[in-house]
Amino acid sequence: MRKDIYLAGGCFWGAEHFFQQIDGVVLTEVGFANGHTPDPTYKEVYTDTTGYAETVHIQYDTERVGLRFLLRMFFKAIDPTSLNKQGEDEGTRYRTGIYYTDSADLPKIRSIFDEVQRQMKAPVVVEVEPLQNFYRAEDYHQDYLNKNPDGYCHLPFELFQFARNAKPETDE
Predict the structure, then answer these.
(1) Domain that holds residue 51
(2) CA 117, 160, 151 angle in degrees (round to 5)?
(3) Residue 170 lies in a domain
(4) Which position among 8, 11, 78, 163 bears the catalytic label?
(5) Residue 96's closest CA among 7, 4, 5, 6?
(6) Does any domain span residue 96?
(7) pLDDT of 65-122, one tens digit each?
(8) What are the backbone angles phi and psi of residue 164, rounded to the nearest 5°?
(9) Has this prediction a pTM greater than 0.90?
(10) Which residues contact 64 (CB under 8 A, 6 or more apart)?
């Protein structure tokens, strides 16, 4: 069965590339989630006035990888205590978030969130909210690091290798 989750992890170029490396992720697309203007452009979102977060829509095969595993990987790719900043990228569009479409996923999300919080000295500032809206970013943003291997990314190259070598677990 295929399911969807929307994860905001700072700049969506690197976040998308990171999740593309994980076995069981069958589709990714970058866009903007949980804002308040209709059909925003990247240029509009960049102003930090639209309320959107750069987000990766992830579709995954639940028989190959589980939500808990994906969330644990997500928390390895972000600084969960950094508000509106990941790497050198700053602004509300770079906030971190877990946006779900199935309320049955909330207990799993909360469980992983609490697990991460117990490991941190500072508060975890990752939003956990239902997905309100998602608009796909312009085509040149899709698969950006695949098309531009030397393009900017706040994530270290080693993290992509880590994701590629990770052994997915299902939630069952």
Answers:
(1) 2-165
(2) 115
(3) no
(4) 11
(5) 7
(6) yes
(7) 999 999 999 999 999 999 999 999 999 999 999 999 999 999 999 999 999 999 999 9
(8) -65, -35
(9) yes
(10) 23, 24, 168, 170
